[in-house]
Task: structure prediction
Amino acid sequence: MTGTAGERKAQLRAALESVRARVDRACLAAGRDPGEVRLLAVTKTFPASDVALLSDLGLRDFAENKDQEAGAKAAELASLRPDADVRWHMVGRLQRNKARTVVRWADEVQSVDSVRLATALDRAVATARERGSRTRPLDVLVQVSLDDAPHRGGCPEEELPELVSKITQLNELRVRGVMTVAPYGVDHSATFARFARIYRRLREDYPNLDEVSAGMSGDLEAAVAHGSTCVRVGTALLGGRELASRE
Result:
């Protein structure tokens, strides 16, 4: 690792203050309470030691996009900070055959985009609860596709109501809301405005949905302006991914 743990903590503190200031300014511009927007630290490729330092600085929510990396990191954090009150979120595309391992560490999966995946997760949670390795249902968000790109994942807009209906019938999943990733090379403000309309229509039938996960390091202001309640920030908080290779 380059530098000392103290130096890294100072770097993370400064970055955290900067990101929080951006969220505060975005909320002020939108006439919103900053307390309505949760900061989700995307720690993929970064070590558990960074997660530990961020938890020391008061962050509670952390996201990963690969099951294998996340499981090991969550276990290491539990060793580094056994009393840390953190929540782990899966934000990457998820294959059904990973359901059993994901439910071992994830408090929430933000990338549910099919009935088959939801069913696999439901069964995995039920099995984990039977074995005593899990004590609660799994929170999930439905990922909405705004560009119809299969490799990016997400449920097409026209299929969203049916998917949410199916998930609400499962015993071990709790649908909290929706998530999206802005397509490349588009007007993010217009994209998030469309996403907000989709969410509002969905909420007419499901008023308990209260989570809108949208916005990352480069576009969080536009997302907050259009109602995001969760911004997923990696680079602006932890630095460029090349830093993750430090020893």
Remarks:
- The first strand starts at residue 38 and ends at 42.
